[in-house]
Design brief:
Radius of gyration of chain A: 16 Å
Oligomer: heterodimer
Number of strands of chain A: 11
Shape of chain A: globular
CATH topology of chain A: Protein Transport Mog1p, Chain A
Distance between the termini of chain B: 45 Å
Largest sheet of chain B: 3 strands, mixed
Distance between the termini of chain A: 53 Å
Helix content of chain A: 10-25%
Largest interface: A-B, 57 and 59 residues
Structural class of chain A: alpha+beta
Helix content of chain B: 55-70%
Strand order of the largest sheet of chain A: 1-4-5-6-10-9-8-7
CATH superfamily of chain A: Mog1/PsbP, alpha/beta/alpha sandwich
Number of helices of chain A: 3
């Protein structure tokens, strides 16, 4: 009995298990150099190498990509998040409300909002912001931050986020992967993608 | 999606005591008359039959994984302290059977597995106001262990039906927070103790407290604090209080208000007139002190405004002078995080009061600066951020704050 429990409990990555993860979704190849509009918006990114995008969206304002399965590499695009909306789907609106986005947020608030969302969803205290820098997304001023956390599967992961509020809407790209091997393997390409993202 | 459902089901299972509902009361399992077989706390106790052996085996396996958990608090001083309170409460000899683990999670819980593994959550340490309260919880869990309550439930379930089919009908109503603790939460907390068992454990904890010289009224105080905190959470979030729905800490029946009253009566009856009973408030504060800022941060991150506001006030002891720099800073963080009308002004006020104590964390300046900027006081906000950067030039977000403070990077 207990072994069964442990196995089932072992899966927990920040976004993919929390939003309706498209485990049955089909994946489509995004070839290196392909330019694509993401998350039903005008945000255009260029794949630095071959990635796979899920044909099913976690939420109407997001899109998920992976190379080796979302447990190992998870690239999320969020676009046009409006005042009062949350990063993930709200599952327990009253008892465990997720923090809502507000266009009045300062860049520091965005970081805390992301951290708070993660803390509530993961129920954890091991989520830590490692570094925060001013940055741009598609030419607009925003923020770039790095974080680390350990989820329910006891795997240490690293993540990076680029985000900006543009016309009162939030645009955010996040990447996370296990600290061992996978993060380092992909982060350079992901950072380049964040740097080169543009609006059509 | 399958993965999600699986983890939801598991978390619901692991937290069954928290989510237990009165309507689904499991079958009453009579408290057995314990014969002259050795207690599980006795030296050299071994499981007595295949079923108990199997359960121990599973729990031992789970313990191996627990040892690798990044959520364990390894600080030897804190571990030694909690252990010393347990040993003082139940006595050095019986205490040897316990393997204690402190787990970093903001929830209010503790449990003990049949093989002697005791889990104490950091959220519990945050809420206890003195050593006697901690002793009451540890004594309660230890009684469940020594009376083999979970083993008896397990036995009864196994003899009736396949355990997984039984588990599958459990109500699934979990806090998000449950997800992260799935890796160890089920150790000892899979079981929903019945009313009789809870009474036994309550009575046991009162006896242990009195024998150890602790004030036994601590036990009912925990319930009144917990009930009030649940009310405060519910009021802010506009849902019904969980106070009588489940006990939160030791789960389910009897209702916590009844239980509080019964514990208070038991305490009164157990106390000898004229005898001094120890609360150990100063000792407790000294032992938890270094960890306190981290634990309150974990709590604030849960975004439970009502419950946290109540908790801060009780920690301040309902006394204006009890509001230390740390507590005022925490209150500022709480208001700033809620970000509703007027909250930034309130937060700025608390940060200023915190700074005025001279003992507040440097982050008070950061909070003040951001609150002022959010409220439109640009120059004052930038000046506060610069004060913070002077104190913490290596802060993780120093570069961003510098740009917000109008300094060119």
């Amino acid at each position: 009995m207990m072994n069964f429990l442990m196995k089932s409990a072992a899966a927990l990555v920040l976004a993919s298990t929390l939003v309706a993860a498209p485990a049955e979704a089909r994946w489509r190849l995004v070839e290196a150099g392909d330019e694509r509009k993401v998350a039903r918006s005008k945000l255009v990114v260029t794949a630095p190498e071959d990635w796979n995008r899920a044909t099913e969206r976690p939420t109407s304002r997001s899109e998920i990509w992976t190379t080796e399965g979302t447990q190992l590499t998870e690239l999320m695009f969020y676009a046009k998040i409006k005042d009062g909306e949350t990063l993930f789907k709200r599952r327990q609106r009253k008892r465990n409300p997720l923090p809502e986005f507000s266009p009045d947020m300062l860049p520091t608030d965005l970081v805390e909002w992301y951290e708070d969302t993660a803390n509530i969803v993961l129920g954890g205290s091991l989520f830590e912001i490692v570094e925060v820098q001013p940055a741009t997304l598609g030419g607009y001023p925003g923020v770039h931050f790095r974080y680390s956390y350990t989820g329910g599967d006891n795997v240490a992961r690293l993540g990076e986020v680029r985000a900006a509020i543009i016309d009162e809407r939030l645009y955010l790209i996040s990447f996370e992967a296990p600290k061992i091997y996978y993060f380092d393997r992909y982060i350079t390409g992901v950072r380049a993608m964040m740097d080169n993202a543009r609006f059509e | 999606m399958k993965r999600l459902l699986a983890s939801v089901a598991i978390a619901g299972l692991a937290f069954q005591p928290l989510a237990a509902q009165d309507a689904d009361e499991p079958e009453i399992i009579e408290a057995e008359d314990v014969d002259d077989t050795p207690l599980p706390s006795a030296h050299g106790y071994e499981p007595r039959d295949d079923l108990e052996k199997g359960l121990w085996y599973e729990m031992d396996e789970a313990e191996k994984r627990l040892k690798e958990s990044r959520f364990l608090i390894e600080d030897p001083a804190l571990n030694d302290y909690v252990r010393s309170v347990l040993c003082k409460t139940v006595g050095e000899e019986r205490c040897k059977a316990t393997r204690l683990y402190l787990v970093r999670t903001p929830q209010f819980n503790a449990s003990m597995a049949p093989n002697g593994v005791m889990l104490v959550y950091s959220g519990l340490l945050l809420r206890m106001r003195d050593e006697a309260q901690l002793a009451a919880v540890l004594g309660h869990e230890f009684t469940h262990f020594e009376k083999q309550h979970s083993l008896r439930i397990f036995r009864s379930i196994r003899s009736k039906t396949d355990i997984m089919s039984w588990l599958s009908v459990l109500p699934v109503r979990i806090p998000y927070a449950a997800a992260m603790v799935t890796q160890y939460a089920f150790i000892g907390s899979v079981y929903s103790f019945n009313r009789e068992m809870e009474r036994e454990a309550d009575a046991g904890s009162i006896d242990e407290l009195v024998n150890a010289g602790y004030d036994p009224r601590a036990a009912s105080a925990i319930w009144s604090q917990l009930g009030a905190e649940m009310d405060a959470t519910a009021k802010e979030r506009r849902h019904r209080s969980d106070k009588n729905r489940n006990g939160g800490l030791f789960a389910t029946h009897p209702r916590s208000t009844d239980r509080m009253g019964k514990l208070a009566i038991m305490a009164r009856e157990a106390m000898e007139e004229g005898k001094e009973y120890d609360r150990g408030a100063a000792e407790y504060r000294a032992a938890i002190g270094d960890w306190w800022p981290k634990l309150i941060d974990d709590q604030i991150a849960l975004k439970d405004f009502g419950g946290t506001e109540y908790l801060l006030a009780t920690l301040a002891g309902d006394d204006p002078l009890g509001w230390t720099g740390d507590l005022l800073y925490a209150r500022g963080e709480l208001y700033r995080a809620r970000a509703e009308e007027g909250d930034f002004a309130q937060a700025a006020d608390f940060y200023r009061q915190a700074i005025a104590t001279g003992t507040a964390p440097a982050e008070s300046w950061r909070g003040l600066g951001i609150s002022l900027l959010r409220d439109g006081f640009k120059a004052e906000g930038q000046s506060a951020l610069r004060s913070y950067l002077d104190l913490r030039p290596d802060a993780p977000d120093a570069a961003l704050l510098a740009s917000m403070a109008g300094e060119t990077a």
